[in-house]
Write a structure and sequence with these properties.
Structural class: alpha/beta
Helix content: 55-70%
Strand content: 5-15%
Distance between the termini: 16 Å
Shape: globular
Number of strands: 5
Order of helices and strands: EHEHHHEHEHHHEH
Largest sheet: 5 strands, parallel
Radius of gyration: 16 Å
Strand order of the largest sheet: 2-3-1-4-5
Bound molecules: BIS(adenosine)-5'-pentaphosphate, magnesium ion
Length: about 190
């Protein structure tokens, strides 16, 4: 299995590039944000819980998120592998992912981190917020909070994967195709 953790701050291009990676390597794309938003639109209990965190730009609690992710992986156990987009976001999630993947006889192959300066992130998200309807793109305070939560809880995972020699840093500024080709090189490297 090829299992890619696609990493980077809010607006770095994870969702955009996950679609390209999925096509190229025939993988299953799992975005925890997308799964939460689907649950919100269907008004499930999980959606109601997640909404209260997402609307503020805070993280949904680890326990709920980990359980949800594992049940998604389980649905596609005969696939070529996965792109994890927006997961893991905490050390507890990263530990849980390692343990779970080992239990099914596989592991994270690489973590690809998209690097984009904060000014560009805010610009991209405010721009998307004009049309996307995403509640967390609607004002700069929520966007800034998402970036701060990333710095505080998530950025440290670069060290987690570096310690396993799985970390690949990619410049996320440029056209979508330019960034895509850098990602393919990082994965094939
Ligand atoms: P999530 O849905 O993961 O959102 P995010 O990480 O904040 O990031 P985005 O999805 O906004 O950005 P992206 O990196 O995917 O970029 P995109 O391709 O869209 O999480 C949302 C919330 O859910 C979290 O805040 C949290 O509450 C909760 N959550 C999710 N996962 C969780 C977890 N594991 N644990 C706990 N809570 C969790 O691109 C952004 C924009 O830029 C688009 O408009 C795009 O068209 C544009 N763009 C893309 N590439 C380029 C480029 N090269 N040049 C110019 N523009 C570009
Ligand atoms: Mg996304």
């Amino acid at each position: 299995m090829l299992n890619i953790v696609l990493f980077g701050p809010p607006g770095a291009g994870k969702g955009t590039q996950a679609e390209n990676i999925k096509e190229h390597y025939q993988l299953i794309h799992l975005s925890t944000g997308d799964i939460f938003r689907k649950n919100i639109s269907e008004s499930t209990d999980l959606g109601k819980l997640a909404k209260s965190f997402i609307d503020k730009g805070e993280l949904v609690p680890d326990e709920v998120t980990i359980q949800m992710l594992e049940s998604e992986v389980n649905k596609f156990s005969d696939s070529n592998g996965f792109i994890f987009d927006g997961f893991p976001r905490t050390t507890q999630q990263a530990d849980a992912l390692d343990t779970y993947l080992h239990s099914i006889g596989t592991e994270v192959t690489k973590m690809v981190a998209l690097n984009v300066p904060e000014e560009e992130l805010v610009k991209r998200l405010l721009n998307r917020g004009k049309e996307s309807g995403r509640t967390d793109d609607q004002n700069e305070d929520i966007i800034t909070n998402r970036i701060q939560v990333y710095e505080k809880n998530t950025a440290v995972l670069a060290d987690f994967y570096q310690a396993q020699s799985k970390f690949e840093n990619v410049n996320g500024v440029g056209t979508v195709d330019e960034v895509m080709n850098r990602i393919f090189s990082a994965i094939d490297n």
